[in-house]
Structures are given as C-alpha cells and as structure tokens.
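Consider this:
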Amino acid sequence: MPEFSLDPRLEADTVPVTDLPLSTLRLSRDARFPWLILVPQRADIAEIIDLEATDRAVLFDEIVLVSQALRAVTQCHKLNVAALGNQIRQLHVHVIARFTDDPAWPGPVWGSGEAVAYEPAARDRLIGQLHQSLPRT
C-alpha cells in the first residue's frame, strides 16, 4: 500500500496548522483570506468518492469542526467550502472565511488578484487561535 505524501504545490502554498484524525490541516499563505485546507492523509485519493465510507464520514466531521473553528475565530460573514482539484489532483478541501468587504467578494477567491503573504506574527496568531478553537484530538 502506498504511503501518503503531500502534493508539493500544497506544501509550498500552505503552512501546517495541525493533524486531525484523518486530515492534515493547512493554512494558505495568502493573508487576504483566512483559508484553511484539509488534506486527507490517504495515498492516491483524488475525489471524495475515492475514500472509504468511514473516511468520508470522518472527513465530513472534520470539515464541520474546521468550519466552526474558522467562523469562531474570524467572525466571517460566509464560509466557502469546496473540493475542486482542477489544478492539484490530490484530494483537498478548502474552507475559506469570506467577508462582504474582502478583495474578491462576492466572486470566488480563485484567480482574484495577487496573493499577499502573512506577516509571521499574524500568521502565528491565527494558527494559535485555531488551535484554541479546535477540539483536542
């Protein structure tokens, strides 16, 4: 059975937050949008339907937990949750906090302007707040 490895582009575009029972949780490096990415730690999985039934249930629960934590931390107006995979084949689920005054509102975040890097202190503060909002696993 092949081992899980994170797609190099996901590795480059994100920073680690924590590992959940199924997924590794990552934060996008683009500070314009509080943007989390769940990557199920299973090898050679491209679609949600490729997961075993028990893993699909765990992934859904993780999406809910991460969405709740992100909303609690950011007080966002809307959450966008998506598993597109058009550019990166490895299954990953985006959970993005959206605000009516964010640079892409009301359109999608993909392809909207240039990414802005986090200041390290702001990034670390957000990660710390997420850790506090997520249940201990």
In short: The chain has three helices and five strands.
